## 1
Amino acid sequence: MERTQIVGTGSYAPSRVLTNQDLERLVDTTDAWIRERTGIEERRQAAPDESTSDMAVQAARPALAMAGIQPEDLDLIVVGTVTPDMPMPSCAAFVQAKLGARRAFAFDVAAACSGSLYALSVADQFVRTGQARRALVIGAELFSRSLDWSDRNTCVLFGDGAGALVLAPVSDTDDSGPPRGILSTHLRTDGAHAEILTIPGGGSRMPMTEEVLHERLNTVHMNGREVFKFAVRALVDSTHEALAAHGLEPGQVDHVIAHQANLRILEAVLARLEIPREKCWLNLHKYGNTSSASLPISLDEALRAGRLKRGDIIVMMAIGAGMTWGSAVVRW
């Protein structure tokens, strides 16, 4: 089978900035409290007329431009999101139409904050097996409309945004060096812990009713302490697994591209892996937790900042509701 490489990246953040000081006027919190517990200083919020697919398209266009391909060249679009435009059809269908990618088949992957990593893994399989030559992977979330703005434990965390990756078969014909591209992805789920991070209302289990709206059960509910403990353990184990699959040690990692939910989680994971914080691209302070968009936004920023060099070993990691989590190893 062919290997897959990332040939284009893009990202998008809405123009409206919601600072910690803004939140002080909305809910019982302070800038110091938020910074100390999360590392977040501000986050972005979509405009009233902006949808998840709109943000996804804005991230996709620079990714396609970097890859040097047109939308009609795409064979596949996979969107990781749990905040689609509507329950059906998929967000990916709207993205396909808005881009004009008429040849591409398109669908969503729902793995919460792990969504873009899951979508990357799915698209990688299609490219490896030759069923798709050009694939567009997007993580896009509009969580500001799924938050309880009176709950200081959740409303301070999330921001809106989108990130995109373009995948293609490895074009490097030089076989003298180590293999480049996506070396492997490793995905995990443990539904026994589903209740620690949910949007309980609005589905078939608890359809939308006046009571659901009154109790705000259609918004994010989280047991932060349990999420923290689970996340640190799962991400450390998953990263060790991914590296071991290629005979690599954490000390050989050049860059960490991670879903950014909480600075304390990232610092704990990096400490246990004995990877210096300087190797992890951090943008949590300005975007907050953008869920599935976090990982591709971070990769795009790191690449455009000149941090990624040919041959670098990159570890990706993400964890989200489900609980879902995973890691990937890429040689750039």
Note: The mean pLDDT is 96.
## 2
Amino acid sequence: MDIKDKSVLLTGGSAGIGRELARQLKAKGATVVITGRNRDRLDFMRAEGFEAIEADLSNAKGVDALVAAWGNRAIDILINNAGQLVDHDFRKGPPDSDAADACIYANLNAPIRLASALIPALAKRPEAAIVNVTSGLAIAPSTRTPVYCATKAGLRSYSLTLREQLKGTAIRVIEVLPPVVDTQMNADNAMSKMPAPECAAQIVDAIESGSDEANIGQVKLLRAVYSISPALARRIMLRF
């Protein structure tokens, strides 16, 4: 896909991977509209020339408000990048069920709801894409973040089946699986982290090449291990 002159809706575009992705897509000539929850970060991106829509995607009301704000505009690329991480470890004490619900909605329900709302508009374009940002943890989960892992595995399954449903249409469904990336979400994670600009660059490459699936950084190794022995991959990741 040629990104130049494409209209892009990028969720979670005010920080981390999303911010770098917005910048790189804009540099290639796309018109990028971002979403986020933090007004200061959104204003920072507006100062860089981006249109920014304030939207809390952890509930249906927020998603519906975003769809309403988008209106009848043409769209070529939907990037479901926004995500939340929630601490859900019974070894530390009772988890916060409300926080888990918000994480599930933001990471899984919101992308499904956005795709459902915007596929009719995407289908009108000569070429279009839905890009779902999942995680290497969608392949094998980590003990520390079971809710996050479950949502990313769910979005991976949704991406696989949606791709099959949309065969023969102009819409390409692309799943990208980042490793641990150096973002605010992973500030407390001691593991080696990929720089956000590098991760964003590989996502852009996946969009341009039309790949169905892009395993990024160390996820390539995890994917290789999983292809040989799923049980071994799970044992390795469950240590974290």
Note: The chain has one domain: 7-237.
